[in-house]
């Protein structure tokens, strides 16, 4: 399931980026007109689609078209050329679809206007819809003959390449993220487990094996420089057996009267036992 999730994300992303620009071509002049597709309308496939170009009647297509396809023309591909304005894009495309057209080419009604995406609800829309500039629309309107195959809509291959690049980049990021998690997550888990499994106290055998010597007040300074127990603060007695810790601190023997020696010497931690005790 976890392995399938990245693939599902990429599939959804690929579906979302299918919306690309297209090229409208008027064959008699071999002239191309850049356009933008309608969002949520049917996308143009890689092979494109060709058909006859008819000027819609009325031109704004805000009401039912009077020049729709007849009963014997349902097998022919027709595009409706529509001017922008007076009503929503959705109404224009819906009326063209109801009249039997396979696509709607809407051109701008303003000079030097920027191409925009036509926002169309996906409900009941089954035809192609694109938006072109006013200049392109006027050329198409002037030379539209209504002949079969005279007008074609092709996907814009350059933007398709960007789509492939975007999908490849997202795929790389997903794979990189999975690899990072796969490499560092187990290491972190093993490190935390190792810390939890460290011994909580020093083995009593290790404590018993610590080096010992007999205290002598006359020999003070040869083996040690202190004459007081750092734990219980009692003075050492002559002939008393003292233990030497690895940190070179000296404490009284476990067999002495200092009752805190056992717990302090064998307490948890690799640091200086006496120094920790003094804190």
TrEMBL record:
Keyword field contains Protein transport: yes
Entry-linked InterPro entries: E3_ligase_sorting_rcpt, PA_dom_sf, PA_domain, Znf_RING/FYVE/PHD, ZNRF4/RNF13/RNF167_PA
PANTHER family in the cross-refs: RING ZINC FINGER DOMAIN SUPERFAMILY PROTEIN-RELATED (PTHR47168), RING-TYPE DOMAIN-CONTAINING PROTEIN (PTHR47168:SF5)
Main location: membrane
Compartments where located: Endomembrane system; Protein storage vacuole membrane
Membrane topology (UniProt): Single-pass type I membrane protein
Transmembrane regions: 161-185
Domain PA: 60-140
Protein name: PA domain-containing protein
CDD domains: PA_C_RZF_like
GO cellular component, one term: protein storage vacuole membrane
Molecular-function GO term, any one: zinc ion binding
Domain of life: Eukaryota
Single GO biological process annotation from the record: protein transport
Keyword Transport: yes
Endpoints of the signal sequence: 1-22
UniProt keywords, alphabetically: Disulfide bond, Glycoprotein, Membrane, Metal-binding, Protein transport, Signal, Transmembrane, Transmembrane helix, Transport, Vacuole, Zinc, Zinc-finger
Gene3D superfamilies given in the database record: 3.50.30.30, Zinc/RING finger domain, C3HC4 (zinc finger) (3.30.40.10)
Record organism: Prunus armeniaca
């Amino acid at each position: 399931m976890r392995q399938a999730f990245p693939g599902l994300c990429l599939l959804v992303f690929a579906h979302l980026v299918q919306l690309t620009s297209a090229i409208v071509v008027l064959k008699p002049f071999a002239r191309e007109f850049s356009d933008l597709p309608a969002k949520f309308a049917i996308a143009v496939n890689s092979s494109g689609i060709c058909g006859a170009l008819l000027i819609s009647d009325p031109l704004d297509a805000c009401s039912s078209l009077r020049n729709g396809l007849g009963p014997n023309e349902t097998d022919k591909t027709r595009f409706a050329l529509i001017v922008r304005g007076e009503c929503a894009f959705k109404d224009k495309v819906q009326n063209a679809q109801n009249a039997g057209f396979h696509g709607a080419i809407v051109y701008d009604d303003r000079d030097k206007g920027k191409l925009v995406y036509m926002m169309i609800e996906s409900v009941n829309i089954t035809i192609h819809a694109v938006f072109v500039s006013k200049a392109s629309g006027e050329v198409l309107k002037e030379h539209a003959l209504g002949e079969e195959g005279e007008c074609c809509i092709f996907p814009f291959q350059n933007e398709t390449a960007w789509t492939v690049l975007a999908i490849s980049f997202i795929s790389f990021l997903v794979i990189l993220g999975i690899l990072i998690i796969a490499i560092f997550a187990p290491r972190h888990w093993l490190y935390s487990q190792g810390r939890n499994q460290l011994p909580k106290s020093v083995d009593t055998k290790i404590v018993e094996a610590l080096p010992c010597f007999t205290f002598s007040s006359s020999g003070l300074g040869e083996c040690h420089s202190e004459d007081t127990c750092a734990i219980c603060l009692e003075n050492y007695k002559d002939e008393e057996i003292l233990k030497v810790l690895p940190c070179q601190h000296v404490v009284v023997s476990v067999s002495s009267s200092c009752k805190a020696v056992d717990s302090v010497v064998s307490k948890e931690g690799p640091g200086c036992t006496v120094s920790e005790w003094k804190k």
